[in-house]
Write a structure and sequence with these properties.
The protein is about 80% helix and about 0% strand. The protein is mainly α. The chain has one domain. α1 runs antiparallel to α2.
């Protein structure tokens, strides 16, 4: 097998438990089978990591959007109050 480990032993919960177990089982196979399965396994691992990154980016974007909406709602309410106060002031004059 390659010198770099494809098993994330130092980063817990980065990959699903089942995928880590699959990697261990592939590592226990004869060299010919390992060569056949390793590229496919690496593609799956890359795909899982990419999906997790994308999910994290989407969650961050949604959090930012929620915050932005709260600020906009606050600004809208303040603007309405200012408008109503100016209307009242104009009506009094």
């Amino acid at each position: 097998m390659a010198n770099k480990s494809r098993l994330p032993g130092d980063v817990p919960d980065e990959l699903p438990r089942e995928l880590i177990e699959l990697g261990k089982r592939i590592a226990g196979l004869p060299a010919g089978f390992q060569r056949d399965l390793e590229p496919i396994y690496n593609q799956v691992v890359d795909s899982v990591r990419r999906r997790r990154r994308i999910l994290s980016l989407v969650q961050d974007a949604l959090s930012q959007l929620r915050l932005d909406i709260k600020y906009l709602m606050f600004d809208l309410e303040v603007t309405r109050r200012e408008r109503d106060a100016l209307r009242d002031q104009l009506a009094d004059d």
